[in-house]
Write a structure and sequence with these properties.
globular, 10-stranded mixed sheet, 26 strands, 489 residues, 8-stranded parallel barrel, 24% helix
Amino acid sequence: MSKLFINASNRKSKINKEIYSHFSEHLGRCIYGGLYVGEDSPVPNTNGMRNDVVEALKNIRIPALRWPGGCFADEYHWMDGIGEKSKRKKLINTNWGGVLEDNSFGTHEFMELCRQLGCEPYISGNLGSGTVQEMHDWIEYITFDGVSPMADLRRANGHPEPWKLKFFGFGNECWGCGGNMRPEYYADEFRRYQTFARNYSGNELYRIACGPNGDDYNWTETVMRLAGKFMNALSLHYYTVPNTWEDKGSATEFTEAEWYKTLRKTLFMEELINHHTSIMDRYDPEHKVGLVVDEWGTWYNVEPGTNPSFLYQQNTMRDALVAAINLNIFNKHSDRVVMANIAQVVNVLQSVILTEGDKMILTPTYHVFDLYKDHQDATLIESFVEAETIGGEDTVPSLHESASVSEDGTVHVTLANLSIDKAYPVEALLAGLDAKSVTAKILTNKYNAFNTFEAPNTVKIEDFKDITTTADGFRFEIPACSVMELTIA
């Protein structure tokens, strides 16, 4: 019997809702066909945005959406995407597939999408190939309410009132596709660009600097030392790749050994956060600078028969466990991790939604975000689960959890069983709360199960009722390969 300890009286940090954010890029069918189909499309839409996708994302309370990239961001020139659509520049997307980019989805369309979703826009600014003035003008165009060339241009393009824009990133992967910069050079560039990123008309930017690639701790050390006092947050990118970058492995056809190897590699996220946090603590002991896990998720070989540059991949119960583990880690480090954006929201990498024409399916990863949504803006509380080591050569813990309490006193526990074939009896021991009821939902299936357009509900959330109340809490058995959400009121 594994013990699950939950102590509601030991309250820790706030779990920012932005930890449950998403990432969208002009890549493959993420924007065009995934989020945006245009006003004249036969696919039901509102101002060009797919109604089905918008409603699905609203259901999981998407808090923020990052755009336009990714690598695309550092070649994106925002003025190409404003004004009359028929007159917008048509370009080749040199980062992703060499396909035509007609710029029909630009600033106005992105802000309209965020309005429909009820989420915060997060714009990734072009520091790689753009100028300081271009970045300055974009912020003025979006947020300034006075008389200026950019504010007047926005009005002429049909939006009299300024938008609110909180989250702004200064370059993407500047150590790689964003300019191949050294951290010393980037730190100086960040200091210069952010100087001219003004706060207009009561709008206050949350300035996110480009952070490291995975375990590049020297990047964090250098940028924090030279520019830490100018930023609100530092980003981190880390993808879970089961095998090698040359042959990442299939999304749907994998062995039990590859299952555990994938989960072991995704658990590395905790070591990354601990190490980067320890560096940040030296320059920012008061935790004024947040850590934003800007891009995370699984990365496999593309689905056979699809454009290799579109990065389209399926999504199984393995991805559900990857999502559950990472979200538990982010919750437990919410004193430093203030935002995370899974890559990417629709049709690319570890997507929560896949579309095909007018059809849409929800992936197992989507359902994990649905199970975890009550953690948003709740308070992390102390929790611990006894786990055995499983997995052979790639060892992982059998169980993985986090817990929070909401303002009304309801406790939410999310628990994942990483075993591919073994169920575990669990005895939950409660402290600091007087539990009157326990309800639960579960996502479980065979380890390689996934949803298709022909069978969209193979993997879905179900009610879990086999819970027995005890003197100190309750007990239940969590099935193999499953993610569970327990609500204790």
